[in-house]
Amino acid sequence: MSESDIRPEILALPKVLLHDHLDGGLRPATIIELALESGYDALPETDPVALGRWFRDAADSGSLVRYLETFDHSVAVMQTAEQLRRVASECAQDLAADGVVYAEVRYAPEQHLAGGLALEEVVEAVNAGFRDGERASGGTIVVRALLTAMRHAAKSTEIARLAVRYRDDGVAGFDIAGAEAGFPPTRHLDAFEYLQRENAHFTIHAGEAFGLPSIWEAIQWCGAERLGHGVRIMDDITGVGTNHEQLGRLAAYVRDTRIPLEMCPSSNLQTGAAESIATHPISHLKDLRFRVTVNTDNRLMSGTSMSREMQLLVDEAGWSVDDLRWVTINAMKSAFLPFDERLAIIEDVVKPGY
Ligand SMILES: O=c1[nH]cnc2c1ncn2[C@H]1C[C@H](O)[C@@H](CO)O1
Ligand SMILES: [Zn+2]
């Protein structure tokens, strides 16, 4: 399904997006322009349509590690303040045009230092871009940043400190991302303990390319408030589709304590974490009333948008507009924004739009 096949009634719905990577959502034409300007000559294609197709195909490998290799090209053209500001502004504008009213967009500041920027300069450039994009969209969207630390690297405490430093200036929280197998969340326990002492918010990519131990560590050792993906929580549910379906202790804990699952259906098909939209665990977890949310993950690598993810769930998994409303309110309830601001968006923007 391409962007032109999105039905206007789905496009018009107000949407809330909690899991979207800044470096996974660039416009192909922008990558090409920035590469030309900066002398980056390793792009696999020089035509925007062909480049967009290249990202989708290359990310379609069935392996998270190979999927992540495609980010080399987007990160390469996000190394100056001007590049970061432009990419962030376009991100906010593209989300607003898709009907997104609130978004938390994440990126790893440590990956944007090759041009000589300091970590603070990276954050300030991205923040400036988000503010530009909000203004250019006529104030229809609110964007907050999540600062990601790469799980294979050793900068998580530094990045956690950066997230706290900018908590009142556009940064809503912290995350860890990158290859999951071999890099358990407890590797970054110092960062998570620091954030907890600071009353700061964080989510953890867990239960995507690795199973229950990763989810368990993220929640019970590290204190994650939300789970990035979390699809593999299905491994802790037995007898699915029978009269004897039963939640294990961890799955029950996740549901009982309303831990939000930032689910990304199309991305999971590409990395092999799920087989099809029709059978994606998101629908079953929704029926079991886990706190499910719908997200894009990487719009460029998946050739997707919030509207497209929603339409796929309607067309291929039998979702209703009421289901879309429910996950949208779930997402807004789970945002790392102050309670009164969350409530105002739910009451004044989301509910009137459904
Ligand atoms: O789905 C993902 N799982 C783990 N890591 C991811 C995923 N999507 C993007 N990333 C990584 C690659 C990016 O460079 C980094 C920061 O956005 O986060
Ligand atoms: Zn992600």
TrEMBL record:
<protein>
    <recommendedName>
        <fullName>Adenosine deaminase</fullName>
        <ecNumber>3.5.4.4</ecNumber>
    </recommendedName>
</protein>
<dbReference type="GO" id="GO:0006154">
    <property type="term" value="P:adenosine catabolic process"/>
</dbReference>
<feature type="binding site">
    <location>
        <position position="178"/>
    </location>
    <ligand>
        <name>substrate</name>
    </ligand>
</feature>
<keyword id="KW-0479">Metal-binding</keyword>
<feature type="active site" description="Proton donor">
    <location>
        <position position="208"/>
    </location>
</feature>
<dbReference type="Pfam" id="PF00962">
    <property type="entry name" value="A_deaminase"/>
</dbReference>
<feature type="domain" description="Adenosine deaminase">
    <location>
        <begin position="14"/>
        <end position="351"/>
    </location>
</feature>
<keyword id="KW-0546">Nucleotide metabolism</keyword>
<dbReference type="InterPro" id="IPR032466">
    <property type="entry name" value="Metal_Hydrolase"/>
</dbReference>
<feature type="binding site">
    <location>
        <position position="297"/>
    </location>
    <ligand>
        <name>Zn(2+)</name>
    </ligand>
</feature>
<keyword id="KW-0378">Hydrolase</keyword>
<dbReference type="GO" id="GO:0008270">
    <property type="term" value="F:zinc ion binding"/>
</dbReference>
<feature type="binding site">
    <location>
        <position position="19"/>
    </location>
    <ligand>
        <name>Zn(2+)</name>
    </ligand>
</feature>
<dbReference type="InterPro" id="IPR006330">
    <property type="entry name" value="Ado/ade_deaminase"/>
</dbReference>
<feature type="binding site">
    <location>
        <position position="21"/>
    </location>
    <ligand>
        <name>Zn(2+)</name>
    </ligand>
</feature>
<dbReference type="GO" id="GO:0009117">
    <property type="term" value="P:nucleotide metabolic process"/>
</dbReference>
<comment type="similarity">
    <text>Belongs to the metallo-dependent hydrolases superfamily. Adenosine and AMP deaminases family. Adenosine deaminase subfamily.</text>
</comment>
<feature type="binding site">
    <location>
        <position position="205"/>
    </location>
    <ligand>
        <name>Zn(2+)</name>
    </ligand>
</feature>
<dbReference type="InterPro" id="IPR028893">
    <property type="entry name" value="A_deaminase"/>
</dbReference>
<comment type="function">
    <text>Catalyzes the hydrolytic deamination of adenosine and 2-deoxyadenosine.</text>
</comment>
<keyword id="KW-0862">Zinc</keyword>
<dbReference type="InterPro" id="IPR001365">
    <property type="entry name" value="A_deaminase_dom"/>
</dbReference>
<feature type="site" description="Important for catalytic activity">
    <location>
        <position position="229"/>
    </location>
</feature>
<dbReference type="GO" id="GO:0043103">
    <property type="term" value="P:hypoxanthine salvage"/>
</dbReference>
<dbReference type="GO" id="GO:0004000">
    <property type="term" value="F:adenosine deaminase activity"/>
</dbReference>
<dbReference type="GO" id="GO:0046103">
    <property type="term" value="P:inosine biosynthetic process"/>
</dbReference>
<feature type="binding site">
    <location>
        <position position="21"/>
    </location>
    <ligand>
        <name>substrate</name>
    </ligand>
</feature>
<feature type="binding site">
    <location>
        <position position="23"/>
    </location>
    <ligand>
        <name>substrate</name>
    </ligand>
</feature>
<dbReference type="GO" id="GO:0009168">
    <property type="term" value="P:purine ribonucleoside monophosphate biosynthetic process"/>
</dbReference>
<dbReference type="GO" id="GO:0046936">
    <property type="term" value="F:2'-deoxyadenosine deaminase activity"/>
</dbReference>
<dbReference type="GO" id="GO:0005829">
    <property type="term" value="C:cytosol"/>
</dbReference>
